[in-house]
Amino acid sequence: MRYRYSAGTDGKLEKKAIIYTCDEHGINFADVDSDALNIIRKLKSAGFDTYIVGGAVRDLILGKKPKDFDIVSSASPTRIKKIFRNSRIIGRRFRLVHVCFGQRVFEVSTFRSLKDGHTSNTFGTIEEDVLRRDFTLNALYYDPEQQIVIDYVGGMNDIRKKQIKPIISLSEIFTDDPVRMIRAAKYAAKTDFTIPLNLKMKITSQSNLLSLISPSRLTEEIFKIINSEKTESIVDLLDKMGLYTYIQPHAAQLMRKDAQFRKCYLQTMSELKGSESPRGKALGSLFRDYLESSAQWKPGAIENFKDIFKTVRSFILPINPPRFELEYALKKFLASHGITVKRLHVPSMIISEGDGTKSKPKRKRRRKKKIIIKNEK
Fold first, then answer.
1. Which residues are catalytically annotated?
2. Under 8 Å CB-to-CB from 308, ≥6 apart: which residues?
């Protein structure tokens, strides 16, 4: 075990982080994505400190192969963009870079500072960056070239103890960003870690702060949940902690009132198993049990698709997925019941019975105007 030192306020060297070697952290180097490794090597060769960070490091330590690899660097977004032609800068307040390899996207961020608090959007150092992260298990920095893990906040010990421990003080962590409550439950369900009593009590007392979160952020979170391999466990824990009512209030209310609906709803979630397509079965899982328990399906054509679409849209509020994705999910649901929708009442989609394929609407041909030239004498 080694240590990282830096100068303190008095100018003397202070022990800042523990450095875990390959034998100590136990990460299997073969589980590191080759494209992520390529990004890190290029940035480091250009003189920038660069690491894998967040959930990917946690999963690697737990012996799991991560689906996503987030990368953090001392390089600015503009510099990263110059190094990688296959990249684009996103974001307004705090800019990130998406480096693309075919359909795969790697998010590369710059170290953030604490200049404006824990939600700072200014660049900083690794020592500042670690302190604005939410929980210790997601605040480990992995250098795959040296095969070391840098731990500033005791995250390695918390992973070994199987506990969710906040980095930011309890008085600030959820007032700064209420979505961290959802993430705490999500991390606990995904890893089978425990949430300490004081953290659980703080979540219970401040859960109403989630009502202030925008529909777009809640939509982002629900997609992460339904695309997870532990969807059932996450939804179950969110519901037990009283948080699911802020994400899917109508479903949460039905689960409280009807034990059979709760059982069916969680069973539907268990069947997802990390689906990659929010347009199909994953998104449909949010309303399937509601429709099946409340609607009388009839064979043949349905003429009131517009009404069914409105019902589904209302049921999944406040989340607000793209209209075409919800249309697609509803189409797949109807097809599973052998129901033909000859033509949707919403624009630009036609559904046929059978494979549920979508055909493009026919374009109206423009009539060419005849130009008559009169010769005037």
1. 68, 70, 134
2. 291, 295, 302, 330
Residue 118 token pair: 């824990």
Give the residue among 160, 202, 159 at the shortest CA–CA distance from 180: 202
pTM of the model: 0.83
Q: Residue 193 gets which letter from DSSP? A: P
**What are phi and psi for residue 101, nearest 5 degrees?**
-125, 95
Per residue in 258-281, pLDDT (tens digit) is 999 999 999 999 998 765 555 567
CB 141 within 8 A of CB 53: yes
Q: Which residues contact 337 (CB under 8 A, 6 or more apart)?
A: 297
* Rounded CA separation 291/272 (Å): 18
**CB-based contacts of 281, cutoff 8 Å, min separation 6:** 271, 272, 275, 329, 332
Are the beta carbons of 1 and 20 closer than 8 angstroms?
yes
**Residue with tokens 């962590």, as numbered in its chain:** 173
Strands (E) across the chain are located at 2-7, 13-20, 50-53, 70-73, 87-90, 96-101, 104-110, 140-143, 148-151, 350-351, 358-359
Residue 357 binned pLDDT confidence (cut-offs 50, 70, 90): very low
